Here is the input.
Amino acid sequence: MSALHFSVNRTYLFLIFLCVLLLAGCATNQHGANKHLKVLDFTVLHTNDNHGKFWRNKKGELGMAARKTLVDRIRREVEAKGGRVLLLSAGDINTGVPESDIQEAKPDFIGMNMIGYDAMTLGNHEFDNPLPVLLKQEKWANFPFVAANIYYEDSKKLVFKPWLEKDLKGVRVGIIGLTTEDTETIAAKDNIKNLDFLNAVDTAKAWVPVLKEDDNIDIVIALTHMGHYPNAKHGDNAPGDVTLAKAVDGIDIIVGGHSQDKLQRADVKNSTYIFQAKDWGKFIGRADFKYYYTDDHDGKREGVLKLINYRLIPVNLKKSILVDGKEKWVTIESAIPEDKKVLKALRPYQEKASKLLQKPAGELDKTLSGARNLVRGGPAALGNLISRAQMTKAKADLAILNGGGIRADLPAGTVTEKDILTVQPFGNMLCYVELTGRQLRSYIEDVADIRGVSGGLAHFANVKLTMEGDKLTRLLIGGKPIKKDKKYRLAINEYSASGGNSWPDLSENPTFVNTGYTDAVVLKEYIKKHSPLKAANYVPVKGDILRK
Here is the structure.
C-alpha cells in the first residue's frame, strides 16, 4: 500500500494514522515477523520552465552555476542527516533566450547534467524543434525524459519512458511524466506530425494503479507540464495539475510547470501535494518530507507521507535600493557563489553565442525610431511593428504593447539579432488571454486612458479607437465594431499582463497562457519572414488611435 495522506484536517488525521503505525510496530504478523516503524527523510528539489536561462543575467541573477552551488549545499545538508534528495525538472528547457536557442539548448543540458537532475518531463516548448533535435537532446542528458502520454501515431508506441523508479533507502518512488495535450495546438505542426498527445488525466488514471498495485511503488510523483489553474478553472487550456489531483487517486506529489506560477506553499487537493517554482530558474522549490512506514515479511508496506517544510529559494534574485541617492541592486537573500566548474563548462557556449548574435535577421529600408519621447508619447511605427509581430505569433485578434518596453531604434540596413535584443532587452515573454468583447472593451478603456510620456502608453495592432477623456467611444477590431459576447484573443507581454505600469492584471485569468517565447525572438522571426521590411508599412495611420 502506498503513502496515505489527507487534505481535510490533515494534522489530526496524520496523528491518528501515525498512532496506528506505531501500534503496528509492536505487532507480529501471521508469519511471526515483527513490524517495525521506520522513517525516511527525503527532499524534492524542483525547477520548471527554464527557457534557455543557462547563464546569469545582467544583474547577476539566475544561472546554472549558482543553481549548482545551491543544490550541492542542500544535498550535503540532507544527506548528512541520513536523508535523500530528488532533483526534478517540469520541462520547457527550450526556447526563450537566443544564446540557448541557436545552440539547440545544449548548454542547458550540460548544466543540468552537472547539477545532477534525476528526471525531467517534456514541456510543449521541447517540440519547438523537429523531433530529431529533441531526441538528440535526450542523448545529451544524463537523466531520463519521462512522458506517459506521448505516442508515435503510426506504431502506437511511447516516444519516451513513461515513468522511472528511484530507490530511496528501500522505499520505492515512482516518477511518472505527463505533458499537456495542448501541445498539439501550440507546437508547429511539422514538429509533431507523427505524434499523439493523449489526455494526461486519463493517462494518469490508467498508469497510477499499475505503479501502485503491479509494481509495488510506495510513493507516486507526477512530474507534469500541464499548468496550475486554481480550483481547476483552466478555461480554454487543457486540464492542469489541480484537475489531475482531484480526478486521480493515489498521486502523492505533483511537481508541475507550464503556467509558471510562483506557488509559495503546497496546494493540497485530494490528498495530493502540488508544487510549482515560477520559471527561468529564479527559484529552486524545496519540499522536505517524512515517510513513516512499516514492512511485512513479504515487502508489502503501509505508510504515511508528511510534508515537513516547503519554500521557494531565490537564486541570486535582487531588489533595488537607494544608497547615497544612487540605485543599487542587492540580493534579496544571501548571495550564492557560482560553481567554477559549471562556469568553465558553459562560458564557451555563452561567448560563441555572443558572436553568433551578429548574424543578420533581415533588412529594413529606413530606421524605425525608438526614441523615448516618441514611443511613450503616442502611436509609433516601431510600436506597430512589434505589436503586429506579437499578434501574428500568438494567432491573436489584436495586440497591445507598452511603450516602455521599446528601448532603442531599429536601424536601417542589415538588422542583426543583437539589434533586436537592444530594442527589446528585457526578455519579456509573449502571452495571450481570451476575453469577451465586454471584458476587452473595459480593459482597453483602462489602458488607453494612460497618457503623457509614460512607459504605460499603449501601442495597438489591429485596433482602431477613440478616447474622449476617460471614456472609450469607438472601438474596432479588425475594422469591425466589437461584439460584446464574442471571444477575442489578446496578445500581450508578461510584464503588462501582470499589472506593470498599473495596467489591469490579466495573469490570474483562467485563459491566460505564457507562450514561452520572448519578445525579441518573436520580433526576429517576424523580420526574417517579412524581410526586406519597408518602414512606411508600419507608420501609424492618422485617426486610427485618437485620444481627445
User: Anything to note?
Assistant: The chain has 15 helices and 28 strands. Residues 5-9, 25-34 have pLDDT under 50 and may be disordered. The chain has two domains: 3-346, 360-547.
